[in-house]
């Protein structure tokens, strides 16, 4: 089953495993593939995301009609008393959503920075590592314990040059103006779903959970 389709489906709160090959979804595919290109630390982080998705898949496949929404999955675990366990689907949903919060924050900063540079030629450009760190501070850091924070500090040292990253996101035969449009579309697509999922998690008092 296509990784990107699963990720989009679960984050959107709809378990419809359809491939997605163009436009904003293509950015997600390239962001996912980047983890393989910049070292073992990022590969470990990517594996953690994949495991969370597989956990949701397993429950969904037990009864697709019953567990057709993320809310249904969390309600089931709330009734069972397992909703706060380390290997619960609720925690998988929580961390997948926070990962997408980070993705949105990073892309917004990247798009804004590039736009400002076009308006002010010769202005200093923040490195990709700085943009990633800023996005991390507002999305994931508040929920990370010292072990997770230490792992992210190591990952930051493996971040590629900004021009390489942007070029890789654009792919072949694509202009930055088109990439900018795709980023804007992706953010507009993701944010309402992320807001809904955060509201659902808050209803079950899961929105403040932290990692080690």
TrEMBL record:
SUPFAM superfamilies: Glycolipid transfer protein, GLTP (SSF110004). Keywords: Coiled coil. InterPro entries: GLTP_sf, Glycolipid_transfer_prot_dom. GO terms for molecular function: ceramide 1-phosphate binding; ceramide 1-phosphate transfer activity. Residues 100-127 form a coiled coil. One of its GO terms (cellular component) is membrane. This is Glycolipid transfer protein domain-containing protein. It comes from Aegilops tauschii subsp. strangulata.
